[in-house]
Amino acid sequence: MSDRTIRKTVIPMVLTFILTIAGCASTKNVGPEDTLQDTSSLDAGATLRAANADAAWPASTWWRAYNDPQLDAWVARAQAGNPTLALAAARVREARSMAGVAQAALAPQVDGSLAINRQQWPENGYYGPGTFNNVNTWDNTAALQLSYNLDLWGRDGNATERALDATHARAADARAAQLELEANVVRAYIGLSQGFALRDIAQSTLDQQQKIAARARRRLQGGIGTQLEVAQAEASLPDYERQVETYDEAVALARNQLAALAGAGPGAGDSITRPVLSLATPLGLPSALPAELIGRRPDVVAARWSVAAQARGIDVAKAQFYPNINLMASLTQMSAGGALLTFLTGNGSGWTAGPAVTLPIFEGGRLRSQLGAASAQYDQAVDHYNATLVAALRDVADQVVRIKSLDRQLDASGRSVAAARKSYRLADEG
């Protein structure tokens, strides 16, 4: 059969056979069921709509707004030493390496092999007495093999994109972990400041009550008071002393928490002095909520990248239904006798070249099950994204409610302090 006949008849027949057999495995009725939540369909609510939207997005070093160098130092220490943050960074490195593995499948693969053997031919071999009777010979082989996957259906390309999307998701997860760590450090530091402040209040209250008790005792000694008045004034002293001890405990626990967040032992927190927080910038929200929330919150970004990665996974699963074509070639140098380097001469050369085709024919439903699993994983990623988006909006709304409530509480507390000071002054004057 001539080359021309092969090109005109055999090759078309082979291609037709491949496509026909590939059609035996169908993707019909197998696919995702869930859809991404549209942010415009979520009602931001009156709380967000009424919020002050004049503020800019916070800087990456947002905690510096508190103007406390000690806080800045502990945030930096936590960023450098926290093991959870180190774990997130290691996961990013792992994802990047896996993306490199996936990308390598798109490039030609070249392997080499070398075998050098010295053989002793026995005198009583099955071949009988002859040329090789009790003779030592070299049996050496060197080979190069090349293969290149044409990736006609995009299996390896989509696998690479899936790995890259997963890397982006890991990076966003790492940023979310870093942001959570920074928030936890600031929260613990504010708790430490609050502990000091409450301890001062408790100590001041205790001092005042001790003065009241002392005054009651002087009145009793002067004959104008009663034992009941002294007992009543002294009755609350143990409770006020307990409150002072409670806030001393809170300060110690906050120091321990800061040390743990920095990946250090409890002793590292002993050197923390009283915070000097001074937040001068008024709290507010940036404009364009909730739309820009998608591009700003790392947890939402990570969930979106996970959806993209799982979508690529569906494409990879679909590509498994089609033939895989590899271009193969090899070059061999070999000899079964002669000197050590005889196999490197031209007489020992050989080569092969041609395509290698693999295709699914009967696989018991494995490919449809793999596609179904990939589709279900995509649905899970979509559901996780939708849940993350809803939780993010709730978190923002909750913070707005807290800010407004704290403003009102601060105003009420100011009035209460003023009234208490007036009452104490009147009592002290009396």
Rg = 39 Å
Give the overall form. Answer: elongated
Query: What is the count of structural domains?
Result: 1
Architecture (CATH level 2) name: Up-down Bundle
**Name of the top-level CATH class:** Mainly Alpha
Major beta sheet, strand line-up = 1-2-3-4
Write out the CATH superfamily name: Outer membrane efflux proteins (OEP)
Give a quick account of the main beta sheet: strands, pairing sense, barrel closure. Answer: 4 strands, antiparallel
Please count the helical segments: 10
GO molecular function: efflux transmembrane transporter activity
Main location: membrane
Protein name: RND efflux system, outer membrane lipoprotein, NodT family
Membrane topology: Lipid-anchor
Describe this structure in words.
Residues 230-257 form a coiled coil. One of its GO terms (cellular component) is plasma membrane. Belongs to the outer membrane factor (OMF) (TC 1.B.17) family. GO terms for molecular function: efflux transmembrane transporter activity. This is RND efflux system, outer membrane lipoprotein, NodT family. The longest helix has 67 residues, at 155-221. The radius of gyration is 39 Å and the shape is elongated. The chain is α+β, with helices and mostly antiparallel strands and 430 residues long. Helices cover 58% and strands 11% of the residues. The chain has helices spanning 3-22, 45-49, 69-81, 83-104, 155-221, 227-235, 237-261, 293-296, 298-319, 366-429; strands spanning 109-120, 136-149, 324-335, 349-358. It has a single domain, classed as Outer membrane efflux proteins (OEP) (Up-down Bundle), CATH 1.20.1600.10. The protein has a 4-stranded antiparallel β-sheet with strand order 1-2-3-4, with no helix packed on it. Helix 4 (83-104) packs antiparallel against helix 5.
